[in-house]
Amino acid sequence: MTKVLQVAQSWDWASLSDLYGLLQRWKALKPLEALQLLLPCFPDIEVRRCAVEWLRPILSDDLVDYLPQLVEALKLEPFDHSPLMVFLLERSLSSPQVAHSLYWLLVQQLPGPSPQNSDFAEAYFEGADPRYSG
Q1: By C-alpha distance, which of 33, 38, 16, 41 is closest to 85?
Q2: The pTM is what?
Q3: Which residue has the higher pLDDT, 102 or 120?
Q4: What is the tally of structural domains in the chain?
Q5: What is the CATH number of the domain that holds 32?
Q6: DSSP letters of the chain?
């Protein structure tokens, strides 16, 4: 599918119905193949929506393995309320393992010092355990 979409002659408005029809008729991709449709070379929202739909059946244990790539794809989403964001939030609400992994991957992406290295964390550890006090 990715190769077919990459060689599409035109992504103009007149050609979109043909491309979208092809997406609807295409056999569901494996998760690794669907991830490729979340690359920046496919900014079309319908292509990205199909990629997310093909990711939905993946088990939470397997999804955790793909989270680093999905967080990178999330950073490149052209819209704030994207199908990928909704999918990740839904899965986080249904799986504590996904929520925990996603949280820490997102924290790593934030600018500035990370919470685990902050003054608050240091003060917490100093007060919580005598081994950490100076």
Answers
A1: 38
A2: 0.69
A3: 102
A4: 1
A5: 1.25.40.70
A6: -HHHHHT-S--SHHHHHHHHHHHHHSPPPPHHHHHHTTSTT---HHHHHHHHHHHTTS-HHHHHHHHHHHHHHHHT-SSSS-HHHHHHHHHHHH-HHHHHHHHHHHHHHSSSS-GGGSHHHHHHHHHH-GGG--
